[in-house]
Amino acid sequence: MAATQQDLISRFTEKYDYHDPEFTPEIAEIVHREIRTVPGVTYSAAHGGIWILARYEHVAMAFKDYATFSSAAGVFYPRAEGAPKFSPIDYDPPEHRVLRSLMAPSLQHEQVDRLEPAVVDLAAGLVRAIAERGHGDFTEQLARPLAIGVLALAIGLSESAQEQIRDLTSQLWARYSRDPDSTRFWPAFRELLAAEVRRARERPDDSYLSHLAGAKVDGAEISEETLHSVLVSYCIAGHETTMNTISRLLWYRGQASLPRSPCRTRTWASASASTW
Fold this sequence. Notes:
The chain is mainly α. The protein has helices spanning 5-14, 25-36, 56-63, 95-103, 109-133, 138-155, 159-176, 186-202, 208-213, 224-237, 240-257, 262-275; strands spanning 42-44, 50-52, 216-217, 220-221.
């Protein structure tokens, strides 16, 4: 018999596990609210056991005490052996501050302003193509290529990398918490990043990637591991959250404004389903 919503809420409140397929965004919202009402901290036996700091005062305390609440072992759980570290969240000071300084140039106001015309052109072209067809999947044909295209503009990624990033990201998250080691998802991603770094060094330009590939810290070249850590963070966080947010905004907007005809309901729901 299928579990009711209340069954799921009770189960995940007692054994929090965001990797479970039944831990949907709707269930998560309720579970997070329930956990925040619990005095103290919450324990979950999932994946060997974790403690959950869900209240503001506990999270604020942890952020100020990295010696006790270290991020250096990785902030995702469980973590496959040999999986990449993500910059800067998987590092403590002083490495954390160094990595933030390496990542800052691509996010500066001047850089963002410079990219605005190209981003507008990209978005307009994607919307125009859907409008001319008269239909489309807003996740696959708008949110996904827009997020990855803007990332490529900001970082300086090749067309080949753009074509591979989404599939490699999906493989990484699908296996990150399930495989005992990273050999089934990380080598292909690492090779993509290594190829992008090689290209930037062989044919340098004014992109952030070229700047990063040639950067030094205290006079020493940055290790390949560090370069990959920075780039994999950009490649994943730089497109996935944006893609999801655009898709969900479109879906919510459609739910609020469009008639509930079967055709239109399926069109907007597909954007949400393919996102989550």
